[in-house]
Amino acid sequence: MSAPYIVFSHGQDGEPWGAKIVAMAEVARAQGYAVESVDYRGMADPAVRVRRLLEVCKELPGKLVLVGSSLGAHVCMTAAAELPVRGVFVLAPAFYMPGYEQYTPKVPPGCPVTIVHGWNDTIVPPDNSVRFARQYRTTLHLLDSDHRLTANVDEVCELLDRFLRRLPKL
Fold first, then answer.
1. What total number of domains does the chain contain?
2. What CATH number does the domain containing 124 carry?
3. How far apart are the first and last CA of the chain?
4. Which of 65, 91, 99, 117 has the fewest CB atoms nearer than 10 Å to its CB?
Protein backbone atom coordinates (compact mmCIF):
# COMPACT_ATOMS: atom_id res chain seq x y z
CA MET A 1 0.00 0.00 0.00
CA SER A 2 1.36 3.44 -0.91
CA ALA A 3 1.78 6.28 1.58
CA PRO A 4 -1.08 8.76 1.89
CA TYR A 5 -0.48 12.08 0.14
CA ILE A 6 -0.39 15.67 1.28
CA VAL A 7 -0.74 18.16 -1.55
CA PHE A 8 0.51 21.72 -1.01
CA SER A 9 -0.87 24.81 -2.76
CA HIS A 10 1.19 27.99 -2.56
CA GLY A 11 -0.15 31.53 -2.48
CA GLN A 12 -0.45 34.04 -5.30
CA ASP A 13 3.17 35.21 -5.22
CA GLY A 14 4.61 32.04 -3.72
CA GLU A 15 6.37 29.09 -5.23
CA PRO A 16 5.83 25.35 -4.93
CA TRP A 17 8.82 24.68 -2.69
CA GLY A 18 9.12 27.86 -0.65
CA ALA A 19 10.46 27.81 2.92
CA LYS A 20 7.06 27.19 4.59
CA ILE A 21 6.17 24.31 2.29
CA VAL A 22 9.61 22.74 2.69
CA ALA A 23 9.26 22.90 6.50
CA MET A 24 5.71 21.51 6.45
CA ALA A 25 6.74 18.76 4.01
CA GLU A 26 9.31 17.57 6.57
CA VAL A 27 6.53 17.24 9.16
CA ALA A 28 4.38 15.34 6.66
CA ARG A 29 7.16 12.93 5.69
CA ALA A 30 7.95 12.29 9.37
CA GLN A 31 4.37 11.08 9.75
CA GLY A 32 4.62 8.78 6.74
CA TYR A 33 3.03 10.97 4.08
CA ALA A 34 4.19 11.35 0.51
CA VAL A 35 4.18 15.00 -0.56
CA GLU A 36 3.35 16.87 -3.72
CA SER A 37 3.39 20.62 -4.32
CA VAL A 38 1.50 22.14 -7.23
CA ASP A 39 3.15 24.87 -9.29
CA TYR A 40 0.71 27.74 -9.94
CA ARG A 41 3.26 30.31 -11.09
CA GLY A 42 1.88 32.24 -14.04
CA MET A 43 -1.72 31.30 -13.15
CA ALA A 44 -3.50 34.35 -11.75
CA ASP A 45 -7.07 33.05 -12.22
CA PRO A 46 -8.25 31.06 -9.15
CA ALA A 47 -10.47 28.87 -11.34
CA VAL A 48 -7.45 27.84 -13.43
CA ARG A 49 -5.59 27.01 -10.21
CA VAL A 50 -8.48 24.86 -8.99
CA ARG A 51 -8.50 22.94 -12.28
CA ARG A 52 -4.73 22.43 -12.01
CA LEU A 53 -5.04 21.13 -8.44
CA LEU A 54 -7.83 18.75 -9.47
CA GLU A 55 -5.68 17.43 -12.35
CA VAL A 56 -2.74 16.74 -10.04
CA CYS A 57 -4.87 15.17 -7.30
CA LYS A 58 -6.78 12.84 -9.59
CA GLU A 59 -3.44 11.15 -10.40
CA LEU A 60 -2.74 10.43 -6.70
CA PRO A 61 -4.02 7.39 -4.80
CA GLY A 62 -6.28 7.40 -1.78
CA LYS A 63 -7.78 10.12 0.36
CA LEU A 64 -5.66 13.26 0.38
CA VAL A 65 -4.77 15.99 2.83
CA LEU A 66 -4.74 19.44 1.22
CA VAL A 67 -2.56 22.21 2.64
CA GLY A 68 -2.67 25.73 1.23
CA SER A 69 -1.65 29.29 1.91
CA SER A 70 -3.66 32.44 1.07
CA LEU A 71 -5.03 32.01 -2.47
CA GLY A 72 -3.72 28.43 -2.32
CA ALA A 73 -5.88 27.90 0.77
CA HIS A 74 -8.94 29.14 -1.12
CA VAL A 75 -8.06 26.81 -4.00
CA CYS A 76 -7.70 23.85 -1.60
CA MET A 77 -11.09 24.42 -0.01
CA THR A 78 -12.77 24.77 -3.40
CA ALA A 79 -11.15 21.59 -4.76
CA ALA A 80 -11.91 19.64 -1.57
CA ALA A 81 -15.56 19.50 -2.57
CA GLU A 82 -14.59 17.42 -5.63
CA LEU A 83 -11.85 15.22 -4.19
CA PRO A 84 -11.54 12.37 -1.70
CA VAL A 85 -10.01 14.34 1.19
CA ARG A 86 -9.12 13.36 4.75
CA GLY A 87 -8.65 16.95 5.84
CA VAL A 88 -7.68 20.49 4.88
CA PHE A 89 -5.09 22.66 6.67
CA VAL A 90 -4.98 26.28 5.52
CA LEU A 91 -2.87 29.35 6.27
CA ALA A 92 -4.26 32.90 5.96
CA PRO A 93 -7.02 31.76 3.58
CA ALA A 94 -8.28 34.35 1.13
CA PHE A 95 -11.92 33.93 2.15
CA TYR A 96 -14.59 36.67 1.83
CA MET A 97 -12.32 39.06 -0.04
CA PRO A 98 -14.10 42.17 -1.39
CA GLY A 99 -15.76 41.45 -4.71
CA TYR A 100 -15.22 37.70 -4.33
CA GLU A 101 -17.33 36.86 -1.28
CA GLN A 102 -19.64 34.63 -3.32
CA TYR A 103 -16.66 32.47 -4.29
CA THR A 104 -15.69 31.61 -0.72
CA PRO A 105 -15.92 27.82 -0.60
CA LYS A 106 -17.87 25.77 1.88
CA VAL A 107 -16.42 22.98 4.02
CA PRO A 108 -17.25 19.56 2.55
CA PRO A 109 -19.26 17.43 5.01
CA GLY A 110 -17.11 15.36 7.33
CA CYS A 111 -13.89 17.10 6.35
CA PRO A 112 -11.75 18.25 9.29
CA VAL A 113 -10.42 21.76 8.66
CA THR A 114 -7.85 23.77 10.58
CA ILE A 115 -7.15 27.43 9.84
CA VAL A 116 -4.01 29.30 10.93
CA HIS A 117 -4.02 33.08 10.52
CA GLY A 118 -1.88 35.98 11.70
CA TRP A 119 -3.43 38.69 13.82
CA ASN A 120 -1.30 41.28 11.99
CA ASP A 121 -2.29 40.23 8.47
CA THR A 122 -2.80 43.36 6.34
CA ILE A 123 -3.56 41.41 3.13
CA VAL A 124 -6.37 39.08 4.27
CA PRO A 125 -8.07 40.33 7.44
CA PRO A 126 -7.99 37.76 10.26
CA ASP A 127 -11.68 38.53 10.82
CA ASN A 128 -12.37 36.67 7.57
CA SER A 129 -11.00 33.46 9.09
CA VAL A 130 -12.91 34.07 12.33
CA ARG A 131 -16.10 34.43 10.28
CA PHE A 132 -15.40 31.25 8.31
CA ALA A 133 -14.45 29.25 11.41
CA ARG A 134 -17.58 30.40 13.22
CA GLN A 135 -19.84 29.56 10.26
CA TYR A 136 -18.37 26.10 9.66
CA ARG A 137 -17.20 25.27 13.20
CA THR A 138 -13.61 24.70 12.08
CA THR A 139 -10.53 24.84 14.26
CA LEU A 140 -8.87 28.26 14.19
CA HIS A 141 -5.45 29.31 15.49
CA LEU A 142 -4.63 33.03 15.52
CA LEU A 143 -0.93 33.80 15.85
CA ASP A 144 1.02 36.99 16.50
CA SER A 145 2.17 37.15 12.89
CA ASP A 146 1.57 38.71 9.50
CA HIS A 147 0.11 37.30 6.29
CA ARG A 148 3.12 35.19 5.36
CA LEU A 149 3.49 33.60 8.82
CA THR A 150 7.21 33.17 8.11
CA ALA A 151 8.24 34.29 11.61
CA ASN A 152 6.06 31.46 12.98
CA VAL A 153 7.06 28.55 10.74
CA ASP A 154 7.95 26.34 13.74
CA GLU A 155 4.55 27.00 15.32
CA VAL A 156 2.77 26.36 12.00
CA CYS A 157 4.64 23.05 11.71
CA GLU A 158 3.61 22.07 15.25
CA LEU A 159 -0.02 22.83 14.39
CA LEU A 160 0.21 20.80 11.18
CA ASP A 161 1.76 17.91 13.11
CA ARG A 162 -1.10 17.98 15.62
CA PHE A 163 -3.69 18.24 12.84
CA LEU A 164 -2.26 15.19 11.04
CA ARG A 165 -2.13 13.14 14.24
CA ARG A 166 -5.82 13.83 14.88
CA LEU A 167 -7.03 12.77 11.44
CA PRO A 168 -8.88 9.47 11.35
CA LYS A 169 -6.65 6.57 10.40
CA LEU A 170 -7.02 5.17 6.89
1. 1
2. 3.40.50.1820
3. 11
4. 99
DSSP 96: S
Please choose, from the candidates 137, 116, 102, 135, the residue with its C-alpha nearest in 3D space to the C-alpha of residue 72. Answer: 116
Q: Which domain holds residue 159?
A: 5-166
pLDDT of 89-131, one tens digit each? 999 999 999 877 888 999 988 899 999 999 999 999 999 999 9
| Residues 107 and 77: beta-carbon distance below 8 Å | yes
Q: pTM, whole model, 2 decimals?
A: 0.96
Find how far residue 132's CA is from the centre of its chain.
14
- Provide φ and ψ at 106, rounded to 5°: -100, 160
Q: What angle do CA 25, 26, 32 make, to 5 degrees?
A: 90
